[in-house]
User: Fold this.
Amino acid sequence: MIEKQVRHTTQGLGPVIGVWGLLLISHDCAAGAPIARSVDSIAVTVGDMDRALFFYEGVLGFEKMSDDEVAGDAYEHLYGVFGARIRIAKLKLGDEYLQLEQFMAPRGRPIPNDSQSNDRSFQHIAIIVADMDRAYAWLREHKVEHASTGPQLLPTWNPNAGGIAAFYFRDPDGHSLEVLHFPPGKGDPKWQARSNRLFLGIDHTAIVVSDTDASLAFYRDGLGMRVAGASENYGTEQEHLNNVFGARLRITAMRASSGPGVELLEYLAPRNGRPMPADTRSNDLWSWHINLKADIDAADQMIRQRHFTYVSPGSVNITLGRPYTAVMVRDPDGHASLLQSP
Assistant:
């Protein structure tokens, strides 16, 4: 018998993976403008750029916007990798951006074969689709690796979320991805607009955290992102979506003023997920980072005052595309954010 729980939704919130409703949370933010102005893109480290582009463009419908190769002292310091030479491709899907990064030198480590969805190195993006049956058939045709047992249709006993469908799968490097479908009346209204595309855009990136409150100290209290909603999820659909037996999650949706959301996934059960490897570097294939437009001077001060962990030694001047200043930092669980001046 499926355990049921009453959950509530809030109008206007972007969809959240596996979230069967959101409870609106209010919080008094610190005075002044938030450090994080917007989420610009989500960056993922890949082992073979040409293979990754074939998959993201050819299978998922992303459009390549730029393709550059960078090297030098500034990038070595920003990414914390000596001798770094990086090929960076920026892709667009709908209104959102994904950044693929291949370290041509030095090469990092692959994603472990036994990685699980409750490991704290877990991160993915949630891609909205116009039709789940068509999307699943298309992914099967292209022989993607399953991470879920199959698409999960959220139960009709919850009138606010019944009919939402979700499915986890993997890209050629083993990164977890999700497709989501929202029926009429569910999710952000923009996902209901008429389109001839199957894959519509990126709603959010999700990261596994060990302690939601500790993560809020970084994303909300430090960067100034707002809590858009929260829920506690469990039941057979959640287990089969995450492919984690007995999964019970505390889920918190974070938003900046624009761009994809950031979703915090705390596994209340089982609590046996492995921590982010302490020696994780930016060239390891499990190392993603969130690109945010931000007030760099204020970010630098906040990182120092709150004792968060730098990847870069501080702010670095970069000239890719345009001159800007950037800093890379890790949250309490080791997930990276690259803050760059607007």
Observations:
- Residues 1-30 have pLDDT under 50 and may be disordered.
- Residues 296-306 form the longest helix (11 residues).
